[in-house]
Amino acid sequence: MGHLVPLLLVFFGFGAPWPVLARTDNQTACGSLEINEIADFRKMQNCTYVVGHIRLAHVDFTAGNYSLESLASNVSEISDYLMVYRCNGLLTLQKIFPRLRIIRGQAQLFDKYALVVYENRNLRELGLVELLRVQKGFIRIESNPMLCFVETIDWMYLMGNATEQHYSLKHNKPHGQCPWCGGPLAEFDFLKNASEHCWNLNAAQLRPQPPRSKDCPPACGISGCDNAGICCDHNCVTGCYSQNCSLCANYQGKSGCVNQCIASYEINRRQCISKRECKDLGRIPLVRGYQCVKKCPGNQKKVLDAKGMIQCQVECKGDFHVKSAADLEDLQDCLTINGSLTIELTNIKEKIVEALENALVSVKEITGYLKVIHSAQLMSLTFLQNLDSIRGDKLVENKYALFVVNNYHLEHIWPPNHHVIIQRGMLFFHLNPRLCYEKIHQLQSSLKSGENISVADVSPNSNGERVICGDGVRSLKPVVEDLNSTAVRIIMDYMDWDGMETLIGYSYYYKEAPQQNVTMYDGRHGCGHDNWLMDISPNKSRRHVIRNLKPYTQYAYFVKTLTRTDYHIQIDAYSKIAYFQTLPDRPSPVVRIRGSSEISSQILLHWWPPSRPNGIIKKYLLTYEKQNVTKEVKDVSASIADLDCDCVDVLPYYSGPQPDDEDYYNKDQITYEDALPNLIYVSRYYDNRRKEFDKVVDYEHLLTMKKKEVPTTLAPTNPVLTNKTLVKKAAETYEMFRMKSEMRHKDMQDFDREKCKIRHAMPKCQNSHASVVQQVEEKCVVEETLNGIELPGNQHFYYIFNLEPETYYRVTVRACVDGVVNGCSNPAEALVKTTGLRIERLMKDV
Ligand SMILES: *[C@@H]1O[C@H](CO)[C@@H](O)[C@H](O)[C@H]1NC(C)=O
Ligand SMILES: *[C@@H]1O[C@H](CO)[C@@H](O)[C@H](O)[C@H]1NC(C)=O
Ligand SMILES: *[C@@H]1O[C@H](CO)[C@@H](O)[C@H](O)[C@H]1NC(C)=O
Ligand SMILES: *[C@@H]1O[C@H](CO)[C@@H](O)[C@H](O)[C@H]1NC(C)=O
Ligand SMILES: *[C@@H]1O[C@H](CO)[C@@H](O)[C@H](O)[C@H]1NC(C)=O
Ligand SMILES: *[C@@H]1O[C@H](CO)[C@@H](O)[C@H](O)[C@H]1NC(C)=O
Ligand SMILES: *[C@@H]1O[C@H](CO)[C@@H](O)[C@H](O)[C@H]1NC(C)=O
Ligand SMILES: *[C@@H]1O[C@H](CO)[C@@H](O)[C@H](O)[C@H]1NC(C)=O
Ligand SMILES: *[C@@H]1O[C@H](CO)[C@@H](O)[C@H](O)[C@H]1NC(C)=O
Ligand SMILES: *[C@@H]1O[C@H](CO)[C@@H](O)[C@H](O)[C@H]1NC(C)=O
Ligand SMILES: *[C@@H]1O[C@H](CO)[C@@H](O)[C@H](O)[C@H]1NC(C)=O
Ligand SMILES: *[C@@H]1O[C@H](CO)[C@@H](O)[C@H](O)[C@H]1NC(C)=O
């Protein structure tokens, strides 16, 4: 809870105009609202929906002379989130948001929360009486010491049963000290309109249900179906027919709710309107993206068309200098850059390559020059994927149309088969240590001038000196030899003698890859700021184990050699990218269990899938037992509700670093080359392949070269080269020597077989009653029998029947993964109490 405070403080003290965005159907859209004092409520006065967020922070409701009624708003929708933080004297939100029906959570507070009510010392109830849905994002109601009617809300319903959303209720007034829905705690007789779920004493929680929610076709999901069994429209939050829907999940179209705006224009992220309507609002219908906007975006200029209508036209004129992502806005959607483009990405910490790709995807022509300098992040110029020509109307130093200098990681210019014509002007390439001279030379044919590339302009000495250029790239052929759920052993083909001489070791690159479409340059921004993880194996062993992987996850990997330095060509060998998938493993516990009881003999349980399923959840195992709750436990029963929110990962199961662990992606990604600056060496490799053996022309020569290596038993004492038998024998001896020598090299690469063992889970014993000794002897495990109700892995709720009223039940749920022996998680527990008969009766009467 503590860490929220400093972040929230950031919001304090904002002040800016909050423009009314548009009026349609007597509705008024507003932008995000920051409310820090009573006077700020005026900004919200006319809003019926908010495109953005609302933040009430540090408002002192005890100050000033105002009536509560004057704070009332007509806001019924918030597209992003609602935050209420440290408001003094605020008793309820009912007066402020009497009509709020939906919080969409399209953008979330801290990328996570859609509704946050935090540290409001006087707040007694939420009172969001009309709220029907929080579409996305988490809910956090915390540290409001007087707050009641928190447990009385069906949060599950508000989130539409979504298992990826969570709510957290903590440190509010203990449930046991709060009134019930409908009346104060002790006075059940006052319960007239009692309902299990309410926002305060007077307002039951509205929970419209589809006509039918049980026995619908499975395709309907949680939307339910109508009485005829036809699925309710998933575009409608509150009902079955999109035409009659009063609350659209996505967009409000002409004739009902729709998924996206088709042949119409999106306005305020919630509605589709016609071109005409858009214009009538004084707005501009943008053809790209079909949006109805107030002003032309970024680099688009207002122009009047033939009919005198305002349109937005992209205009990209001038010399553009891109140093950071912020500079890209002016280039968005440009087809032609009427001027020159300079890319200079000196800030290696900024991840910008993807933004470059997106911003420059449409560029077909640059009328001036293209200059790429000091951009260590770039591995290629493929971000200009549609560029056809550089016109060269303007040149660098009156000579160069393509000027590429000092780009440390640049390895490619254009993708294969992509030709960029240079209409006028020459090339200038220097200090690109990884860009092969040949690749630059291939651009000769793109030069319209026909002039030859000169060495002064494009030097083989300052380009490509840190990589192997030409065809001589040796390829590695790694194979996955063995794996378990968290580790994989990769084995390389044998390196021959020449390779061995210069080999220092291998580096292994790997990353998660749900799809098999990864390329080596994906997300690589040079400088080690890429998302490939790397293991270095600084020895000649051809085996390596990558550990700490996530279970049941597909990874992409490739291998590269680390080689010794000679002068200035490097012959690192690469493998192609290949994929493997780790094995499944035991899952983590289910994230949370929630129980509710509307009928005294029943409990409805909900739970969330494990945060780390580690495989396909085959089933859930559920147990329940009556629990004798002692006096003390009863007293803290208020915190039991807390417990069931918080029994998160009771005993966390470690399954390797997770992407949300802080260090997961920050794992030391500094490239080895940077750490060991002299790992570069020469290619002697190709010309002299197998020279050690091939050069031996005859037996005598062999003897003089390798006397010690020759097995003495076979070495003739008196070689007479004219004797045919002898020659034959010599050849045999030579062959034997060659094999021995090779064997020795192979052994050097195989020395660590033991160290690279992958530990495997033991198989299930044949005999299901095997003793411990038998288990050890037969290297197997007995499958433990877990009792409980088995439920399919896609079901996340269960009704428990035939219970006693007003009684505590201890409930446990385990998740079990397919294909793993004893693959059930630790149980997550919750204590749930059934409703009393009296309340049940009261509720039936209503
Ligand atoms: C908008 O308000 C006017 C008058 O205030 C009313 O005549 C009209 O029907 C309203 N339109 C909608 C869509 O509610
Ligand atoms: C709200 O609408 C009223 C009447 O149209 C107008 O007088 C007032 O200025 C508006 N308030 C804001 C904040 O726009
Ligand atoms: C508050 O305002 C009302 C009328 O607007 C006035 O009658 C009353 O005296 C004011 N109270 C204070 C304390 O200023
Ligand atoms: C809210 O809208 C209703 C009609 O829809 C109107 O009568 C009322 O004055 C509005 N309230 C505010 C605070 O604008
Ligand atoms: C949530 O699931 C429960 C149990 O399946 C169901 O009764 C309820 O109608 C669902 N709620 C929504 C909003 O779909
Ligand atoms: C109970 O409901 C009735 C009608 O639905 C209503 O008239 C009455 O005011 C309600 N009582 C309370 C205490 O909310
Ligand atoms: C929409 O509501 C109207 C009036 O309630 C009803 O006549 C019509 O049948 C409904 N449309 C559908 C598709 O159910
Ligand atoms: C580029 O700008 C010049 C000077 O303003 C103009 O004459 C030319 O037509 C423009 N070219 C393109 C393709 O927009
Ligand atoms: C791979 O495919 C997935 C899904 O089709 C897509 O989201 C992702 O962007 C692709 N990745 C690359 C690098 O192409
Ligand atoms: C609960 O209490 C009853 C009566 O005191 C006792 O018979 C029973 O064994 C207890 N059950 C458990 C699980 O402790
Ligand atoms: C070659 O030498 C071997 C043994 O040294 C001998 O037995 C053989 O007769 C010789 N052959 C010829 C053709 O001289
Ligand atoms: C997988 O094998 C590695 C290497 O032997 C071992 O460290 C790891 O514990 C194994 N993982 C599991 C889940 O057994």
Summarize the structure.
This protein is an alpha/beta fold and 846 residues long. It contains 14 helices and 45 strands.
Question: How would you portray this structure in words?
Answer:
- Keywords: Cell wall, Glycoprotein, Secreted, Signal.
- It is found in: Secreted, Cell wall.
- With 846 residues, the chain is α/β, with parallel strands linked by helices.
- Among the domains are: 1-208, 24 nucleotide stem-loop, u2 snrnp hairpin iv. U2 a', Chain A, CATH 3.80.20; 343-446, Receptor L-domain (24 nucleotide stem-loop, u2 snrnp hairpin iv. U2 a', Chain A, Alpha-Beta Horseshoe), CATH 3.80.20; 471-581, Sandwich (Immunoglobulin-like), CATH 2.60.40; 590-649 and 784-844, Immunoglobulins (Immunoglobulin-like, Sandwich), CATH 2.60.40.
- Helix content is 13%, strand content 22%.
- The strands form 13 sheets. Strands 1-2-4-6-8-10 form a 6-stranded mixed β-sheet, with no helix packed on it. The protein has a 6-stranded parallel β-sheet with strand order 3-5-7-9-11-12. A 5-stranded parallel β-sheet has the order 21-23-25-27-29, with no helix packed on it.
- The radius of gyration is 35 Å and the shape is flat.
- Mean pLDDT is 78; it is low at 4-23, 185-194, 523-530, 565-570, 631-699 and 701-721.
- The structure holds 2-acetamido-2-deoxy-beta-D-glucopyranose (12 copies).
- One 2-acetamido-2-deoxy-beta-D-glucopyranose is lined by residues 723, 725-726.
